[in-house]
Amino acid sequence: MHFTSEQRLDDGVLEREFTLGEIPGTLWTPESAGPVPLILMSHNNGLPRREARLVARARYTAAQGYAVVSIDAAGCGDRPRSAAAEQARAELGRAMRAGDPVDRIDEIFESLVGPLVENAVPEWRATLDAVLELPGIEGPVGYTSWTALGIRLAAVEPRIAAVGFFAGGYVPRAQREEARQVTVPLLFLLQWDDEGNPRQRALDLFDAFGSKEKTLHANLGGHLGTPRFELVDGDRFFGRHLK
Predict the structure, then answer these.
(1) Rounded Cα gap, residues 216 and 147, in angstroms
(2) Full DSSP string of 32-65
(3) Which residues of 67-106 are buried (b: 16+ CB within 10 A; e: fewer)?
(4) Are strands 2-8 and 67-71 parallel, antiparallel or unpaired?
(5) Residue 164: phi, psi to the nearest 5?
(6) How confident is the model at residue 34 (pLDDT cuts 50, 70, 90)?
């Protein structure tokens, strides 16, 4: 892991950009005298790690006493774009806007997101290895944001102790099956009127998780309408399981 820049932000959080091989990432750490837990904060497919909403959540979370790391998945953010993925992403958008049948949307979604998840998991595990070698970061480890990737990581990565997922209506078939293998405490956020995530499928996915402790928070509004108070509730959730 090679740090390329760092700055102390006005909330006291230290923000450091890094590269890990070809992987660009950002690490936020709090002002803290002791070791802190780590939260992996991914982004949905296509978004950069520097997306404003993700950065705001990362800074808030770090200020509560966590190390937070985010990386750009292949084809996202600062990494080269794949022509095939861009075509599938555009086709998916057109199909959803046109109200195409669910089977057709699933077909396009699988061709796009399935490979993204497969490629992202080893990169996230390598990032986890590197960050946990840094002084002052010891775990336990939490994960938040992109549901499809989080399901796979929680199923294969024993160091993850708690997860927080957003939406989840559209998740590849492999991850819908793997949800039964997720047994760590789970907080699942659902926007009731999310135009991009079918409500019933999100509820079915929540039911499939194997966790003995799983909590569903449903709020009115569309995809970008998650209330800010969910940040506070998320901190309480991770505080119970990581501190």
Answers:
(1) 14
(2) -SS-EEEEEE---TT--TT-HHHHHHHHHHHHTT
(3) bbbbbbbbbbbeeeebeebeebbebbeebbeeeeeeeebe
(4) unpaired
(5) -125, 120
(6) confident
3-state DSSP percent of the chain in helix, strand and coil, to 5: 40, 25, 35
So what's the pLDDT on residue 236? 95
Q: What is the mean pLDDT of residues 60-70?
A: 95
Edge-first strand order for the sheet with 14-20 is 2-8, 14-20, 23-29, 67-71, 36-41, 137-146, 160-166, 186-191, 214-219
CA distance 227 to 218: 10
Residue 181 token pair: 């293998």
Amino acid sitting at position 70: S
Task: Note the pLDDT of residue 33.
Answer: 67
DSSP secondary structure string, 162-194?
EEEEE--SS--HHHHHHGGG--S-EEEEEETT-
**Strands, DSSP E only, in the chain?**
2-8, 14-20, 23-29, 36-41, 67-71, 137-146, 160-166, 186-191, 214-219
pTM: 0.92
Q: How many Å apart are CA 239 and CA 49, to the nearest integer?
A: 24
**Cα dihedral value 42, 48, 50, 56, nearest 10:** -50
Cβ partners under 8 Å of residue 6, min gap 6 = 14, 15, 16, 17
Give the C-alpha separation, 173 to 148, whole Å.
10
Residue 242 and residue 231: Cα distance in Å, rounded? 16
In terms of Cβ atoms closer than 10 Å to its own Cβ (0-12, 13-18, 19+), residue 202 is: buried
